[in-house]
Amino acid sequence: MSKARILLVEDEAPSSLHTAAKLRKRGYAVTELGTGEAAAALFSGGGEGVDLVLMDIALGRGMDGIETAKAILGFREIPIVFLSARTDDETVEKAQGVDFYGFVAKDAGSGVLDASIRLALRLFEARAEEQNTTRATRRLARVEAVVGKAMQLMLHERDARKLIDDACHIAVEEGDFCMAWIGILDEGSGRIVPTASAGRVDGYLDDMKISVFAAEDNPVSRAMRERRVVISKDIATDERLKAWNNRDRALARGYRSAAAIPLMSESRVVGVFCVYSDKPNVFGEAETSLLEQLAMDIAFVLDLKRVETEKEEAERKMRESDGLYRESFMQSAAVKLLVDPETGRIVDANAAAAAFYGYPPEELKAMSVTGINASPPEQVRKNMSMVRSRSLDRFVARHRLASGEERNVEVFSSPIKIGGREYLHSIVHDITEKMRAEEDLKRLLGEKETLMKELQHRVKNNLNVVVGLLSLEAERCRDAEVSGAFANAISRVNSIAAIYEKLYDSKDMSNIDIGPYAEELAASLFSTYNLAPGRIALKTDFDALRLDSKRSVPFGLILNELVSNALKYAYPGDRRGEVRISLRSRNGQASLLVEDDGPGVPEAYRGENADSMGMTLVRILAQQLKGSFELDCGPSGGPVGGPPGAPNRRGTRASVTFPV
Description:
Number of helices: 18
Strand content: 15-25%
Structural class: alpha+beta
Number of strands: 22
CATH topology of the domain at 510-660: Heat Shock Protein 90
Mean pLDDT: 80
CATH superfamily of the domain at 510-660: Histidine kinase-like ATPase, C-terminal domain
CATH architecture of the domain at 510-660: 2-Layer Sandwich
Distance between the termini: 42 Å
CATH class of the domain at 510-660: Alpha Beta
Largest sheet: 5 strands, parallel
Strand order of the largest sheet: 2-1-3-4-5
């Protein structure tokens, strides 16, 4: 991989020249600027040709490094590593308001500087990949929420007009689309009549004239004409839409991408469902498939409501007059059968039924329902008995056509009386395509889960690559302090990688069981420090607690730092002892406690005077968890874990408390 291009922002010329020389010796391309204003101006124009910013926090007059970093990040996401002659708590804390990727002392060697830059670039790349995945997953989740809520609506809403109006509002509110509308086809004129809408309409649909036969190439007409989903990924740049009359009106309202999905009732186009986003490139394959499923369900429910309405109307007419019933029965577009519940014979069938089953009307009326129902005869008889007793009014079956093909159908059936005799009035709705679509949706959801697991695996592998690179550099390093820094970095990255390993192995990919993770991490650290068997004992006690991945990472880093400090400093030489780790979850608060029985931390390194990177990192991560960090250093009386003020206390006790 080619070396990165570095922007070095340093106001002191000698220091800038020295640092640039070290970087160029390492193979980096370096651009030098002396002020924060110049750096911000560079990025206001895009900042092309820069992969990472290496910047002094103190830049003299004008904008300091923190202000400059905020300005740069306002124009573009880019990894920023701070340089400073000071690494005290106040300086590090000052940088916490900025999303930075490293903090390097000015007097650090070229190896440390190179490793810090490479680590920052790797972390930025991994984070960018994760953010892209997260955005795609969130988009898909929003569309899934739209489909889910719409399905609930369809199960309970009986008013067809209100149903399509609410469906548009769900698309806007749950799917984060800026506008949605549904149009119904006027079969006489071929025009699409907007019937319901929601979101940022702003008069867009007023006086809109869209026809299936329109000469211009627009998404709506083409979707209905070609009976398929039509996507415009970017209305502003889509060459196909240059002649579209409504293109400028759409852009003026902030619409950047659009999807037009035809509403199909069996093989007929009955309308169109259109959604718009104010962002380009929103509609991926999975989102489009889910929206297509939603459109199919809307069309199905509209048709179902129509069928139910026809059924209710037919029953009312039959009660009033056999003649009116007969007319309604025969002229209905829905497939209708009249069945004798005693014998199962088809007494009557309308023209739609003859067309659906493929039999001449008279032949169909001479058949028994067992001749078209592929279910076992005893199941057919049981269904008729339950419909007759009104304990069943709808069921799913497989019906056999004259061609031998079997279709999945949903049958709505109820007993009625005609001429003093009881019959079963049945409306048959073909749901074969709907069931296939549901199977496709299940497949897509399964593929999504597989994709998420693969992404977790890739993130873990990327982190392992980072660990490998750091290990290679550590092996080449002869400086004990730098080697220690590498070891710390490796253990921190390993703690993050372990989280993704747990997520990959977990059935629930949104959070992990923190107890087993903490147990394994602590055991791994004991192994890393090559301790003699039995010299330092480890005791753990964890309450059951699950954390999402966002909070698991800072938790793991905190545990890594506290246990590493205990192993490195509490037992010098061949001293023996015991490290205790416990996790308690009570009343919405979690408390992590790490304690040892070593000699304690010297007075100069306690409390706010502690300036190690590890303790600073723990404080920052505790704040990130919206919690607090306390460090109780012996000797000050009492055994570890004993009450304050008790005599002969030894050891160090570190605790982090945060809400869950």
